[in-house]
Specification:
5 helices; Rossmann fold; 123 residues; 5 strands; alpha/beta
């Protein structure tokens, strides 16, 4: 079996959401290694260690929320590709996410076509 060539970091405090994302990403491209984090602090640490090509971040999480994590990632890795994925989306959060450097913002539950397009665009 060949080593997976691309990495995607999925950060959500919900195990179910992480599993759904991991399964979907694997269907889109079996060569993608999915790295999982349960909070923003863990996500930042895993980002530093793995330098994934794409990150999906929830907004509402313990320890470090998605917007704070996004800011921290972008301040140290300005080329990072980060997509905010949240069930509590509103216009202010969308503005904050884009202002902090998010590539995109998807509302949970996400539409498969939108998610597939994002994965294909950034990988």
């Amino acid at each position: 079996m060949s080593e997976k060539t691309k990495k995607v970091l999925v950060c959500d405090d919900s195990l179910l959401i992480r599993m759904q994302l991991k399964d979907f990403i694997s269907k889109v491209d079996a060569d993608i290694e999915v790295i999982e984090a349960t909070n923003g602090q863990e996500a930042y640490q895993l980002f530093e260690e793995n330098q994934p090509a794409l990150v999906f971040l929830d907004i509402v999480m313990p320890e470090l929320n998605g917007i704070e994590c996004l800011r921290k990632i972008k301040s140290n890795f300005e080329d990072a590709k980060v997509v905010i994925l949240s069930s509590v989306g509103n216009k202010d959060m969308l503005k904050d996410a884009l202002k902090a450097g998010a590539e995109n913002f998807l509302q949970k539950p996400w539409e498969e076509d939108s998610m597939k397009k994002i994965i294909e665009t950034y990988l």
